[in-house]
Amino acid sequence: MDATDSPFTTSWLSAVAAHELAGRLDIPVPAWQVAHDADEAVAAAESIGFPVALKADSAHVVHKSDAGALALDLVSAGSVSEAYERLSGLTGSPDASVLVQRMAPPGLEIVVGSFCDATFGSVVMAGAGGRLVELLDDVAFRLSPVDAVDAVAMLDSLRCRRLFDGYRGEPAIDVTPVAMLLTRLSRIDADGVVGGERRVVEFEVNPLIVTAAGMYAVDIRARVGGPARSARRRSLPDLSPLFRPSSVAMIGASRRPTISNRILGHIVDYGYAGSLHPVNGSAATDRIHGLPVSASLTDVPHPVDYGIVAVPADAVPETLRASAGQMRFAHVITSGFAEEGENGRLMQAELLDAAREAGITVIGPNCLGLHSAAGGLTFVDGLVPVHGDVGVVAQSGGLGADILRQGQARGIRIGKLVTIGNAVDLSAEDLLEYFCDDPETKVIGLYLEGTRDGPRLAELLDRAADRDKPVVLLHGGRSAAGAQAAASHTGTLAGEERLWAAMAEQTGCIYPTSLSEFLSVLAGAMYLRPAPGGRVLLLGPSGGMSVLASDHCSRLGLEVPPLGEATRSRLLALDVPAGSSLRNPIDTPAGTLAVGGGDLVPTIARTVLAAEELDYVVIHLNAQNALSYMGNGAQILRNIAGAAADLHDELVDTGDDAQVVFALLPNGEPEITELCLDIARPMWERGVPVFFGLEEALDAVKAMTEIGRDRRRREAGHRRPTGPRNP
After folding, report:
1. Secondary structure (3-state) at 76
2. Which of 38, 168, 609, 692 is 20 to 30 A from residue 12's alpha carbon, by CA?
């Protein structure tokens, strides 16, 4: 996002000005008056009523408790006069004044506020308050604006939330007034409460004392500044030729084993059917990968849709200028730009200027390439051309390659993947907008280390949810070390991690914490329907594994409901071998798995489904144990997998809400891994999700449960409010 920085500086308001601002926001404040000498202070205290508090009225004293600029529980004229003399001297001004305020009654101390974040714009916060607010670190954030539903969810997420319900005999406190206050604070920047050209850039009440009788803003601080930055967004270019290019050029192609040579070879091996042109001025008479080499892009007989630029960093701007009218999209895979520091940032700015002069849209720099199954294009070796409905944006080129390779090994059909690196021109938000509108893309994955336009990102995540397109967002740079690594990796600022998590929760996207979880959730979103219930039947061998799986379900908020006595009686009538546990989880040791060559397992599942309300049947098998304890273990595994696929088909055909999830656990040995893949491939083709870890399967189930609940909220009419959110 291009932005115009405000020429205004920010400044803190005095205590009096902050209290006046609170009044305009309809925030309840204990009675107060301003005193300019000790006599006025005493008169104010007597008028308001003891006990009172005195506060130094200075914009330079922000944290009054730390500065000693506060006197509490004053109950006499003498104590007020003495406190006035001490506090007035702290301001350093001959015209010093002091705020005299009635003491608020005791109650629950919380903190509420709003601030303007450079990445996400206006943000509202709430948490456990008082002097220990930083130590307790019990705070929730939401991107503004929020409605009452979002505000209550914020409060419900706090560890101190139980105190509202009446802890240890204290009266219960209604959260509704606090929630409504949060909704007002979330629009503080849009409501023009300051006036003129100034706006509120930070506002905090700490503590806000909440009681059964009401709430009281005790200490208020506010900072104001100039107008919000105005975002200028260009219109999104038509990206269709990017994913289905009729012609491609590799600029900087080489016969040596460079990255450009390898990517060119991968494109040839993947079966690209369009015209492909290696370009290298010093190798005009050579052929590379059997293709004739052009000395420059102007020697190519026609303009190219997509060019991969792999020349040295200092040669990139001139290469782009020389390609004016000859190239629509330039994927600059060269590194050495903003990620390298100030000199790199200057060179990156020159790159962008050159691209705009030439009318070329740039992807990158500092990335690896693009994958489009429909376009016959990739930058990774060893991929099987499979059309898919998963679209991915990856800020890291190497991680993008990992997503493609590991995704193929997990049955994820990735149709489109773009690595964007520093994203100097075409941004993650641009590609997300394209995927939202692309009818071929049903599931969206994002790996981002930062964003230059947080409000637009949030709006597009909302749009994807409204269009029933699950989004899985993996954010790199969550820790301090990760954020520093992100800055040196792609030259972007990772931002406040809790704000990313708040955005994900508000927009209904899934926010995994690792690449493995990211891929598991992508697979779940591709194969499973969102279901809000979250009731799971666990069925498979190993009592210990069942216990651990139940624990993992509990951590995830999934329910493993016990089976009814009538259901257990029906299961006993199946003559299940001794050693089996017919509760939930259902433990089926080797002897049970072997009955009928594996037929008993799906029979158990059908029996339970006929009697119980469930959302997911998770069948899990250990491949190594099957081979070790059953003479025909491999065939039994295949039989159970086939029967699970049959059950899946039956549930789909009958419109049953329950879904089958299959977890097949290898042990890391190549032959066992290949057996598991051999069993999984036909199941993937039939639409059955197969995971190679039980926790991975449950992570996917949890994600689809969250998406189902978000869709239910949207169908009920609850969507994230919209409004001005400029940073």
Report:
1. coil
2. 38
- Tokens 């705009």 belong to residue: 356
Q: Which part of the chain is CATH 3.30.470.20?
A: 1-11+112-231
What would the pLDDT profile of 421-444 be if each residue is shown by its tens digit? 999 999 999 999 999 999 999 999
Do the beta carbons of residue 260 and residue 254 sit within 8 Å? yes
Taking only the tens place, the pLDDT of each residue in 550-597 is 999 999 999 999 999 999 999 999 988 888 889 899 999 988 998 988
Confidence band for 281, pLDDT divided at 50, 70 and 90: confident
Q: Virtual CA dihedral for 257, 258, 262, 268, nearest 10 degrees? A: -90
Residue 538 DSSP symbol: E
Select 386-397+409-527's CATH number: 3.30.300.30, 3.40.50.261, 3.30.565.10, 3.40.50.300: 3.40.50.261
User: DSSP for 577-617?
Assistant: PTT-EESSSEE--HHHHHGGGTTHHHHHHHHHHHHS--SEE
Q: How far apart are CA 694 and CA 229, in angstroms?
A: 48
CB 73 within 8 A of CB 53: yes
Q: Can you tell me the distance from the alpha carbon of 25 to that of 145, in angstroms, rounded to the nearest whole number?
A: 15
- Residues of each domain in the chain carrying CATH 3.40.50.261: 386-397+409-527, 530-714
Q: Spell out the CATH class of 1-11+112-231.
A: alpha beta
β-partners of residue 620 are: 663
Do 488 and 450 contact (CB within 8 A), yes or no?
A: no
Structure tokens at 412: 């994820």
Least confident of 129-143, 245-259, 286-300: 129-143
Q: Please, is 299 exposed, middle or buried when counting C-beta atoms within 10 Å of its C-beta (0-12, 13-18, 19+)?
A: middle
